[in-house]
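User: Some background: our group keeps a shared notebook of sequences we're curious about, and every so often someone picks one and asks for a predicted structure to add to the entry. Today it's my turn. The entry only has the sequence so far, pasted here. Could you supply the structure so I can complete it?
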Amino acid sequence: MPDISPSDAFELQLKALWLQALAGDDMSYAKSLKLMAGRLRAYFGRRLQALPDEVEDLVQETLLVLHLQRDTYDTRLPVTAWLHAIARHKLIDLYRRRGRREALHDSIDDLDDAQHLLTEQEGPARRDLMVLLDGLPTAQQQAIVLTKIEGLSVAEASQRTGVSVSALKVQVHRGLKRLAALVRENP
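Assistant: Of course. Here's the predicted structure to add to the notebook entry:
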């Protein structure tokens, strides 16, 4: 009998447990999640050595997605491929979030005088924006503020508001369309 590589042995063990879990076996479900969590910690740990505090959060986020999307698993494919695809998406989401946040944290000491003047002139534009936003329904207003002003991803805004991703996208689209109409009406 040929030797089985550790990754193949892991896949065989995980797939057997995962298939039993999908069939309703709670013990197999708990065991498979424990195996997946260990694999995810190693995966994220290698990629986030500079951000070790993020590893466990990503593990939990990924496990939540696995739980919520377990019916999308194609039993003809390796479980580890499905697991890593979801983990990769969560990692990309983290990089996007951090990139946006890091870009917002410039020190005020690094600004020159011309940039300070721009900040002082920002007040009237912000006031005008708030007046325009007040003309929108609350759901559209909130969707635009979260995604376009605060810079959250649609998924993050969806989690914060409890609205589905597709509904949030519709609210943003309709809100931006309405804002454009309001700007045309009030030049």
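Suggested note for the entry: The chain has two domains: 6-103, 112-185. Residues 103-108, 113-121 have pLDDT under 50 and may be disordered.
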